[in-house]
Fold:
Amino acid sequence: MSIQTDNIQKLVERRAKARMGGGEKRIEAQHAKGKMTARERLAMLLDEGSFEEFDMFVQHRCTNFGMDKSHPDGDGVVTGCGTIDGRLVYVFAQDFTVSGGSLSKTMSEKICKVQDMALRNGAPCIGLNDSGGARIQEGIDALAGYGEIFERNILASGVVPQISCIMGPCAGGAVYSPALTDFTLMVKNTSYMFLTGPAVVKSVTGEVVDQEQLGGASVHASKSGVAHFAANNEEEAIATIKQLLSYIPQNNLETAPLKETADPVNRLEDSLNSIIPDNPNKAYDMYGVIGAIVDDGQFFEIHKDFAKNIIVGFARFNGRSVGIVANQPKVLAGVLDINASRKAARFVRFCDAFNIPLVTLVDVPGFLCGTQQEYGAIITNGAKLLYAYGEATVPKVTVTLRKGYGGAHIVMSCKQLRGDINYAWPSAQIAVMGADGAVNVLYAKDMKEDPEHAAEIFQEKKQEYEDLFSNPYQAAQKGYIDDVIEPRNTRFRVIRALEQLSGKQANVPAKKHDNLPL
Structure:
């Protein structure tokens, strides 16, 4: 055997060993938990044969606490690039079979390298997290590694899409990288996120809670809003990542890919002419409206289980990717509260950063009142949504279906927040407040002074108020609404508006950065 042949054989063997991670027993243990290995996940995520691995032979440099006895190649993370549906992405997948996926300084260097390459080459960065946290043996070096990763998350924000998928533990400082990325996915029953674990919580507060209750996928998808998606298994999580990527561009200088559709631009949807109930206090399902107007009825929802009184997600109009924000009358009458405002504001800002037009469907009776909301800073949180719409420079098309009352009307992409095209259905009611509340404010003295005719006064003034404001024509007469449209024609009008705005140019004052109300 020649020296060259021998060297090649050694390379093949070393590569094979590196691909085994922590070895067969640990791989079996990973599978027993219902979890795939890092390489199996990447194989499922990326187009077949497209993965280009970096730093397979990197080893840790720690000598503390016996760490000098083992130097596995790769050091607990698989990094590289590949394609998804033919589009370039950069990836890293933590390998729990090697030191529990704990983060060392060299692991952080590997992750930072792909983050830098993603930013430099204008492609999404996807992280598959499965880590026990910082490698304790490395002390401050591990903490420095986290800091390096976080700084790159910040620099890449708004430049390239960043996606985090939590497929195992993610605790302590490790949670901040996913929190800094654009979208976070979790897997039910096998992943969790929290700053401090159940044992620490019990010792500090006396509260007894398990990992799933403290930071499981269902908790973060429905209660905290930390997770945008909660998948039933790893296969579903990976499929969700692929679907998400299909709606968004490679970077902030590009637009999302067009998708051909056979759905006619001028398709009429007669069901929309009767979807609004005669009783203004009766609910209807906004999903029915969305499904009726978008291409092929396909809507990819974000944050489905969090703040259900507002709906956000991606769809297409004539093949063009758009972000949809819509009040949901079936939940809390579609009122805006703290969580709904935060949820929508974050989504609007993502769409604006990545050149995705916004279509807003409005049926909002106002902001949720009460001490819980006021103490929780509904003012500041509501201002986040107002700010997000006001600063957004992408095409903005707004359709008011029914109620548009008070400050909530302003917040939902009104004309004064640089809404480009604002439509209304004939059922739209745009006013400071509803008729009942307005009459009780305006004519309280009259009704108090004449209690015998109070009911008659109320009904008379209510009818007068409704005649004036329970329609869209006052707003249309003043130019606040560009047109009153027939509901069944909404799809065509929205598509035509988006086509008109496709070359939109917007100028904003020069500034270092904004000061969003946080």
Summary: The longest strand covers residues 396-405.
